[in-house]
Amino acid sequence: MYDVIISGAGPAGSKCAEILAKSGYKVALIEKDTNWRKPCGGSINSRIFKYYPQLRKMNFHRINGIKIYSADFHNFEYKWRDALDYSINVDRLQFDNFLRDIAVDAGAELFDKNLSYDFITKENQRIGIKTKSPSGLREYYGKIIIIADGMSSKLAKRSGLKKKWKTEDIGIAKCAIMEGENSLDKETISLFFKSYKGYGWLFPLEDNKFNIGCGLIGEDSLKYNLNQIYKEFWNDPNIKKFLSKKNYRKIWEGAYPLPGQGILEKSLYGDNIMLIGDVAGFVSPMSGEGICPSIVSGKVAAETAINAIESEDISKLTLKNYKFHPTIKKIARSFKLTLSLVDFCFENQGQNLSKMFKIAEHDDAFREKVINMFLFSEAPPKDFIMKLKSEN
Ligand SMILES: Cc1cc2nc3c(=O)[nH]c(=O)nc-3n(C[C@H](O)[C@H](O)[C@H](O)COP(=O)(O)OP(=O)(O)OC[C@H]3O[C@@H](n4cnc5c(N)ncnc54)[C@H](O)[C@@H]3O)c2cc1C
Predict the structure, then answer these.
(1) For the domain with range 2-62+86-167+260-333, which CATH number is right: 3.40.50.720, 3.50.50.60, 2.60.40.10, 3.60.21.10?
(2) Angle at which helices 326-362 and 291-310 pack, to 10 degrees?
(3) Backbone angles phi, psi at 273, to 5 degrees
(4) Of the residues 37, 99, 239, 255, which has the fewest C-beta atoms closer than 10 A?
């Protein structure tokens, strides 16, 4: 019998497992496949070091600036002020396994090649989960169950806490890790906004590798064809400036959905259950950045579970402290504000974004706010919108 069972060993699940195991709890971390590379840009801002200081010693590719282009190719560059403040670009296969190892070193038991598909119930109470593994069906029993298995989660739906995703509530993105001669600045990530809701990116990696991708959000994920958008992005003359060669070697390519409406506040907890990470909407509706927010949700859920087990009350009355934790409330609030800005920014085929970048080209304070909004999901202050509206 485990104290806590976590379904999904992505960033959210691994952080959650690490904290619980470090505090002496018996944790089962269930993962469908540790060889699966999550489709992702792999760009992670400096906040990650607060949760994983050991990453500073690793060789993940360092980034110290960002260049953002609007649909009409207005652009501005921003360099981090502090050398300690660098961000990293990672290959998710390597990164996710690094976080899993930390959880295992802390004492969590990782069960690989286990696909969770249902709960075990007794007298109408969830007492564990069922998985499919190469050796057959397996059962794991635990006091608290944490769902961290991302957008494809079967358990989230079965829990009754959350309905199936509606297409207009999610985004979809496609990306690849490629290798070949390119003229990307090795320390700068580039975002390319377009006339549709979404953006394309070029993220340099070590050697001559890079991550290239693009995504659609909201109703535009229904209006446009992602494969077509992706092909056009590759062939865009402005992208060709960086990628002028013909033969790039594809290391990997994939597409995947991501939540687009911010945190699902009504779906975060129930009796002896919590939802964390993507499955609970911890992704910025503006930038699609979800690795750090998911890790934060995993940390807060772990702390909530510890308090619940200590106080011998694992009911929703105690687990609601996860939803009402100041950090979770702060992220939810900031996602709500940025969500309300998404429509405004992309109005008239991205014209407001073009205006925003035009101002940012010459106004340092304004530029910083734009950066904070895209990189750190910080909602801009009221005067930001006023300035944007007043710009001709
Ligand atoms: C194309 C794309 C690009 C992105 N780019 C960025 C970016 O550059 N930076 C950023 O911060 N965010 C980015 N995101 C968002 C980011 O990938 C997610 O927010 C983040 O991975 C969420 O972590 P998680 O642990 O909640 O879920 P996941 O990373 O999805 O992890 C879920 C884990 O559960 C496992 N699993 C799934 N189903 C089951 C099951 N039934 N049983 C057991 N295990 C299961 C999976 O194998 C996986 O290991 C991107 C998303 C997409 C789709």
Answers:
(1) 3.50.50.60
(2) 160
(3) -150, 145
(4) 255
Q: Which amino acid is at 87?
A: S
Q: How far is the CA of 291 from the centre of ligand 1 (A)?
A: 8
Residue 249 alpha carbon to ligand 1 centre in Å? 24
Nearest CA to ligand 1 atom 4: 40
State in Å: Cα 278 to ligand 1 middle. 7
Q: Cα(287)–Cα(322) distance, rounded to whole angstroms? A: 24
316 Cα: distance to centroid of ligand 1 (angstroms): 26
Q: What is the pLDDT of residue 42?
A: 98
* SS3 of residue 142 by DSSP: strand
Among the ranges given (56-60, 151-155, 337-341), the one the predictor scored with the smallest mean pLDDT: 337-341
What secondary structure does DSSP assign to 152-212, as a single string? G-HHHHHTTSSPPPPGGGEEEEEEEEEES-----TTEEEEEE-SSSEEEEEEE-STTEEEE
Output the ligand 1 site: residues, CB below 6 A. 7-13, 30-33, 36, 38-44, 115-116, 148-150, 152, 154, 173, 175, 213, 215, 256, 258, 277-278, 283, 288-291, 294
Domain parsing of the chain, residue ranges: 2-62+86-167+260-333, 174-254
Distance CA 273, CA 161 (A): 9
Rounded (5°) CA angle 277-40-109:
50
Residue of the CA atom closest to atom 53 of ligand 1: 256
- pLDDT for residue 220: 85
pLDDT at 84: 65
pLDDT in tens, 176-185: 999 999 999 9
Among residues of the chain, what percentage have pLDDT more than 70?
99
pLDDT digits (tens, 9 = 90+) for 299-318: 999 999 999 999 999 999 99
| CA distance between the termini of the chain | 64
Residue 350 falls in which region: left (phi positive, over 0), alpha (psi -120 to 50) or beta: left
Q: What is the pLDDT of residues 59-93, one digit of tens each?
A: 899 999 999 888 777 788 888 876 668 999 999 99
Per-residue pLDDT band for 392 (boundaries 50, 70, 90) equals low
Q: In 3D, which of 195, 200, 214, 210 has the Cα closest to residue 243?
A: 210
